[in-house]
Amino acid sequence: MKSFWALVACIAVGVLSAYAEERVDVTARFDHDFHLDKVIAVRGLQCDYCHNFKVDPKTKTAVFLPGMSTSALNRPVKAICHECHQSAEAKNKAAPKECYTCHRSQESLRDIKPRNHQNIGWAQGHSTNARIDGDSCMNCHTTSQCVKCHQRRNDVEFKNHSRNFRFYHSVVARAQPQKCDTCHSKSFCIDCHSGKK
Fold it and tell me: From CA 124, how far away is CA 38, in angstroms rounded?
């Protein structure tokens, strides 16, 4: 029986690498054998739970389903993986929830960041989104990350401003002082302009 599942896994991996709509670093680390033994067999799932094919029980061959020409998976990789690994349901309790289980580096996590994070003004305007839908922020971030960043309000960092910003920041400060207040306290400005920094 194990060799049958190994065959199915090989077919799935081969088809996946040929047709995957999402080739993220996760697919290279996905352990089919582990999931077959510990998840799929235990729950009585079939290949078509994730894939666009079924295994014919008589011939033991893959029968491709509609949509196979565009993807070996019937849903995006993220949806399939997160169904267990980001679920609070009791049946998924044993599935690791840490992002680094599959995504091995900060770079790979940056590669999959949401589209709205890729906008130029995202850092300056993210507070509105956090107030409206803070739960979605918690899919990737922890409260401590927010606190850590916001406690550094008065640090001089160049990730939010260009290196030349100090030469023309007075224009922005006069036109839209509320923008400065987002990250800096009034004492920050006073200390800098009085020579304390």
Answer: 44
Question: pLDDT tens, 106-145?
Answer: 666 666 777 788 777 777 778 888 888 888 887 777 777 7
Predicted TM-score (pTM) of the model is: 0.47
Which 3 state secondary structure label does DSSP give 62? strand
Q: Which helix (H) or strand (E) holds 118?
A: none
Q: What are the angstrom distances between the C-alpha of 3 and each of 36, 40, 104, 155?
A: 12, 15, 30, 59
CA distance 62 to 54: 6
User: Rounded to a whole number, what is the largest CA-CA distance in the chain?
Assistant: 84
Query: Structural domain boundaries of the chain?
Result: 2-111, 121-193
Integer Cα distance of 5 and 75 in angstroms: 21
Q: What digits encode the pLDDT tens for the residues 34-45? A: 888 888 888 888
Exposed (0-12), middle (13-18) or buried (19+): which is 176, by Cβ within 10 Å? Answer: exposed
> In sequence order, which ranges of 57-185 are alpha helices (DSSP H)?
77-85, 106-111, 122-132, 134-137, 143-151, 165-175, 177-181
118 contacts: CB under 8 Å, gap ≥ 6: none
Q: What is the DSSP letter of 57?
A: T
